[in-house]
Amino acid sequence: MKTKLLVLLLMCIPCYGQVKQTLPLDEWESVAQNAVREGTEQSIIEWQTVTAYIFCALNSGTAHTGTEILVQVSPADSGDEFWITQASMTAMIGTGSSTVMSYPVNAASLTIAVSTLPGTFIADGVRTIFLVGSPTIADSELCTLVSHISGAASSVTVIDALTNTAGGSATFYNITSLHVVELPPQMNRVRILYDNTLDSNGATCWTYSAITGKKR
User: Does domain 14-94+176-215 correspond to CATH entry 2.40.30.20?
Assistant: First the structure.
């Protein structure tokens, strides 16, 4: 009876050793057409729960039939013979369009003046757009477009303030793709492959990824 009581008490004690963390894997980087970006190999041995998230965006106006994103895990501590594709998805299908900021804006800005607004930006509905970091690519970010003004004083308004200061030549693109993949905790490593060879005449794209979860 005492043993059962001790077990129950131990089960009720919170595990304060678990620390929630977010760790960038691959910073924003352009992937050329007909190229494959091999992401960073990251050990997840010390992670109890792990979720990967991947952000992508087209960065040209060329028609594109998709980029394949492969989330791979390995049960091995090292070596390349045991990589397993946990999930794959085809992202960024369509023909992108862009608009350029009229002048620099500070972080925390919500409404940004732009040169012109293509029809894809003024379509109804809330949607995600991509802002290329200028002059630092790592400062790129995804924004949720909620309204716009089209005409002599064109602008876009986003629901969340910009995280970074953006230079006057920074460009918004309209085709984005966001993915969340839960990883099996039994695995030891993770990496992401960005395969931009599906469309031999397609577009270049930007890619970013990170993992989040609790460490043991």
Answer: no
